[in-house]
Amino acid sequence: MQSVTTERHDDVLVILVNNPPVNALSWHVRQGIKDGIDEALGDDAIKAVVLRCAGQTFIAGADITEFGKPAQGPDFNEVLNSIELASKPVVAAIHGTALGGGLETALVCHYRVAVPSAMLGVPEVKLGLLPGAGGTQRLPRIVGIEVAAQMVSSGDPLPAAKAQELGLVDALAGDATLAEDAIAFARKMIAQGPRPTRDRPIIGDIAVIEKLKAANARKWKGFEAPYANLACVEAATRLPFEEGMKFERTEFMKLMTGSQSAAQRHMFFAERQAAKIDGLPKDVQLREIKKVGVIGAGTMGGGISMNFLQAGIPVTIVEMAQEALDRGVGVIRKNYEASAAKGRFTPEKVEKMMGLLTPSLSMDDLADCDLVIEAVYESMDVKKDVFGKLDKIVKQGAILASNTSYLDVNEIAAATSRPADVLGMHFFSPANVMKLLEVVRGDATALDALATVMALAKKIKKVAVVAGVCHGFIGNRMLSQRQNPANQLLMEGATPAQIDKVHTDFGMPMGPFQMADLAGLDIGWHRDPSRIDTIRDAMCAAGRFGQKNGKGFYDYDEKRNATPSAEALAIIEDFRSKSNLAKREISDQEIIERTLYPMVNEGYKILEEGKAQRASDIDVVWIYGYGWPVYRGGPMFWGDLEGAGKIVEALERHGVKVADSLKAKA
Ligand code: NAD
């Protein structure tokens, strides 16, 4: 079958692309479009052209299966030029999505007609790239500098109606009548003639680019692509079109061959891969989850519940005392109302979600739940007691999950008579915000229970990763490999601020000590001020518990702004002086070698032990659970960039036991 055909409608030639599933720009599509334009130009009876697509969408972008293969057919830019420079008006008829190369194709057409449900955008920035076939040069000529700058730097698509308002779409068509409407529109444009985008003047104020940079300074920190996209738009305003195209090409190649886009493209595939359970038979029947129970309405239980309420799934939340229950439910309402105030929900939606929540003081009310998630104190005895009770109360076939951060899920499962129905669902704080869900697979966990929870994760908009049972699973297990040496570095002369800065400069949202202060230094503290075994003990003994009481490794003001603390430094110094360790200058490089390399090493150990299914899952955990910068592709991807040889050498120099598989790679 030919992927591009032409149809004559009196004086209008329709070029119809039909390359399922998404009309990607394969070589034969490019060839077919070019041939169609030649046909139109060679025929005096044809006065206008419509470019339209069959199937579910307009051209959705490049054909990724052609990447890395020898070039075939006409070059994309050559095809685009043939459309733009055609002597007869060409109209793009858009339905579905016109994204990336698809929108770039529409931008060289002289006019654009779209159905109301169509979406138009250039999402390249999200993969660390820019629209490299003239998108950054033509968009400002159609919609002006401000909108173009916004579109290329955010990557967010516009719905057709908005696109029409902004001049990107010339006319809206009927959903069912796009074909005829586009032909009629093209016919109307015959008198007007072609309107090559490259010849259109650019309007708008270049100052908006600097404003956009200032407004997004935090969000874009460390990223190259948003700035490269904006540099291209800026170039479009001062360079002749052909020169601007060259500028765009150079910037595109820089991004395409650089490590950031490689990292972002890696993460794009890693995220999709993470959802897959190795060896899962195709015929596994998922269990139905129509009602969820949550035990504990504290920090985690409340946030966990919100995910399900937002997805329209009723939740029964159980606490031990009325006061704790009221507080927990109150926090949920307050969070929703704050979101509503920001316009994220309507007040009606808030009430609807709260209406799905049933607060209770009795675990008996969980009997008919399809899934129960426990989020009580991090204590094995308490958890075993809860699971023992659940076993007697909850209906057979229900999934029983623990939100434990570190504890042995097998031991928790053994407190029930149905360990096959037990697994870990490790949410991250704040649980209604953080995207990651570690799904902990116990030795006895049934495949259908695991598969059900992985599928449910998608429903509540989480990115789920399967983890095996081990202390701290994937994320927190690696976190300890960062925190322990960070504490040790304090003993040797580094300051919390120095170590944290290395991590934030690296792109992490916060460093180890900022994170410790946020979580609370008294977590797991033995509560005996006279017993001081660690710097943390010393901090707690001095009443420094972290952000919660305004003092930890840093001092905090009412707005929780941190400043280095003389008292904290004195506590560290005092503790260090008792240890016989000499104080010395610590370099930033040493901080990287001793706090980040061990994480990579631990990742290899996790893989060796089969506690993660694949290296890219570990990257997903760190990006979605801890804010590892996506442009560095997660610790495993970053480890490869650094080089196994370099990492092994440094770890051995610092006396760290290196994973065999990492050593083998060096
Ligand atoms: P929290 O102290 O804020 O909340 C625990 C709640 O459970 C309390 O309100 C308590 O009253 C209630 N509770 C205790 N025993 C109960 C019982 N038998 N029946 C009903 N309610 C009971 O603690 P949290 O921070 O929400 O942590 C809960 C769990 O989540 C822990 O296992 C923790 O390790 C894990 N977790 C915490 C975080 C975090 O950042 N806070 C992140 C991931 C996982």
Number of strands: 19
Assembly annotation: single chain
The first-to-last residue Cα distance is 50 Å
Structural class: alpha/beta
Radius of gyration: 29 Å
Overall mean confidence score, pLDDT: 97
The first-level CATH class of the domain at 4-123 and 133-200 is given as Alpha Beta
Please work out how many helical segments DSSP would assign.
28
Q: What is the CATH fold-level name of the domain at 4-123 and 133-200?
A: 2-enoyl-CoA Hydratase, Chain A, domain 1
Globally, the shape reads: globular
Descriptive terms for the model:
Rossmann fold, 2-enoyl-CoA Hydratase, Chain A, domain 1, six-stranded mixed sheet, eight-stranded mixed sheet, alpha/beta, 28 helices, binds nicotinamide-adenine-dinucleotide, N-(1-d-carboxylethyl)-l-norvaline Dehydrogenase, domain 2, 666 residues
Question: How would you characterize this protein structure?
Answer:
- With 666 residues, this protein is α/β, with parallel strands linked by helices.
- The strands form 4 sheets. The protein has an 8-stranded mixed sheet, with helices on both faces. A 6-stranded mixed sheet has the order 1-2-3-4-6-9, with helices on both faces. Strands 5-7-8 form a 3-stranded mixed sheet.
- Among the domains are: 4-123 and 133-200, Alpha-Beta Complex (2-enoyl-CoA Hydratase, Chain A, domain 1), CATH 3.90.226.10; 292-471, NAD(P)-binding Rossmann-like Domain (Rossmann fold, 3-Layer(aba) Sandwich); 494-583, N-(1-d-carboxylethyl)-l-norvaline Dehydrogenase, domain 2 (Orthogonal Bundle).
- Helices cover 47% and strands 12% of the residues.
- Helix 9 packs antiparallel against helix 10 (241-257) and helix 25 (615-626) packs across helix 26 (634-642).
- It has 28 helices and 19 strands.
- The structure holds nicotinamide-adenine-dinucleotide.
- The site of nicotinamide-adenine-dinucleotide (NAD) has 23 residues, from helix 12 and helix 15.
